[in-house]
Amino acid sequence: MARLGHSSKHLSKKFVFLLSCATLLGVAFVADVFWSTLLSSISSAYQPINKSVNILVPNATINKDDQKEAVKVKKDRLAETSLPATFADLPAPELEWEQMPSAPVPRLDGYAVQVKNLLYVFAGYGTIDYVHSHVDVYNFTDNTWGGRFDIPKDMAHSHLGIATDGRYIYIVSGQYGPQCRTAVTHTFSLDTETKKWQSMPSLPAPRYAPATQLWRGRLHVMGGSKENRHTPGLDHWSIAVKDGKALEKEWRTEVPIPRGGPHRACILVNDRLFVIGGQEGDFMPKPGSPIFKCSRRHEVVYSDVYMLDSEMKWKVLPSMPKPNSHIECAWVIVNNSIIITGGTTEKHPVTKRMILVGEVFQFHLDTLTWSVIGKLPYRIKTTLAGFWDGWLYFTSGQRDRGPDNPQPQKVIGEMWRTKLHL
Q1: Dihedral (CA of 267, 272, 277, 278) sign
Q2: Is there a contact between 383 and 369 (Cβ–Cβ < 8 Å)?
Q3: Could you tell me if residue 205 is inside a domain?
Q4: Which of 69, 319, 327, 354 is in the most buried spot, having the most CB atoms within 10 Å?
């Protein structure tokens, strides 16, 4: 019995010892797991930061101009990766262009009319803050500039309406001054033989870049932008004229044009009056600006073609190969077809910036169909075109930034020509 009791005590002590060891091992294991987890958490907090993660800096002040520039750069990069910069170009054959003597001054939104072998080039912007107040004349026979003379003091400088009967040139309405100043209603005629100006009855309301043409003894003025420079006008007025003088005291209201807006070609050929291309909307003067600083607004460029028939009804004809604007004086008539050089097309779908046109278009009057017959030396808008002895000429306007950038940049006075084989 004594021996058995001693053994029981010994076993109890051994059991307690083993239980204690197990407990200590359990605690150690739990502590180890806890410590490992803690170290992992601490370690992960000090891992290198991925460059793609945005870091917010508290109390940081970002300049608004820097924000705008950052957005601009982001859009440009997006445009580069989304679409090629020349997305608006159409396939066209190469033409051999020859550079001729440049105009005495560069011009944007200048206007021109050809009378026989002479191209009369009127006013226009020199820069956005400066406008020209004179006429330059180019002689296609000897390819020289000369015969400069002034315009009337109260005549508009840009966004004119212009037409000729082969001797007298008629100038209607338009914008007076630089930037985005107001339009005027003044109308004049110029005798190209005597270089004398004649005042005519004012237009019923001011218009920017209205479609203008002589037809059946009447001077027709259509569309353009209204007084705020942005809203399209549908109005159509006419007045009887002869030898540079108005035969009536007031303008007559005619059938409205189906779609209003400025910067269109208006052409009379084969007793048919055509209105081609153009846009709705334009830059507007910034509210409260003492210099009428230009402010960008939404514009819609279109490819519409309309014809006014003998019954004074408008007909819709096949559209241009692509939307085109700023082509008021960019056209000539060659072999029963209309040739149009350059212009502006729809805005870039990503950057929303203006895109210039670098193609030469032909509208066949017998079939009423369009074709692209060549490329210009560069993309350009508001060209002033002429045609003489088989040569297609163009001068002035605002050209692109380079072969891979169709946005407008430099205002030029260069003159180019190419031999047409139609």
Answers
A1: positive
A2: no
A3: yes
A4: 327
Asked if residue 262 is part of any domain, the answer here is yes
- Encoding tokens for residue 162? 């212009």
CA gap 226, 183 in Å, rounded: 9
Residue 7's identity, in one-letter code, is S
Contact between 395 and 377 (Cβ < 8 Å): no
Tokens of 134: 């004179």
The H or E element that residue 45 is part of is: helix 2-45
What is the number of domains present in the chain?
Answer: 1
Q: Is the pLDDT of residue 95 over 90?
A: yes
Positive or negative: CA dihedral 120, 123, 126, 132: positive
**Helices (DSSP H) in 122-242: which residue ranges?**
none
CA-to-CA distance for 70 and 92, rounded, in angstroms?
37
DSSP notation for 9-32: HHHHHHHHHHHHHHHHHHHHHHHH
- Residue 16 pLDDT > 80, yes or no? no
For residue 20, is it left (φ>0), alpha (ψ between -120 and 50) or beta?
A: alpha
CA 375/CA 254 separation, integer angstroms: 38
- 47 occurs within a structural domain: no
Helix (H, G, I), strand (E, B) or coil at 36: helix
Is residue 308 within 8 Å of residue 266, measured between CB atoms? no
Q: Quote the strand ranges of 98-179, DSSP E.
A: 98-100, 111-115, 118-122, 125-127, 130-131, 134-139, 144-150, 161-164, 168-172
Residues of the domain holding 260 = 97-419
Query: What's 271's domain CATH number?
Result: 2.120.10.80
CA distance 410 to 415: 15
How confident is the model over 359-388, as pLDDT tens digits? 999 999 999 999 999 999 999 999 999 999
Is the separation of the CB atoms in 381 and 406 below 8 Å? no
392: its two tokens: 């297609």
Task: Check: CB of residue 362 under 8 Å from CB of residue 355.
Answer: no
Q: For position 350, what pLDDT does the model report?
A: 84
When pLDDT is cut at 50, 70 and 90, the band that residue 262 belongs to is very high
For residues 343-379, b (16+ Cβ closer than 10 Å) or e, as one string? bbbbbbebbeebbbbbbbbbbebeeeebebbbbbebb
pTM of the model: 0.81
CA dist 232 and 280 (Å) reads 6
- Does 119 fall in a domain? yes
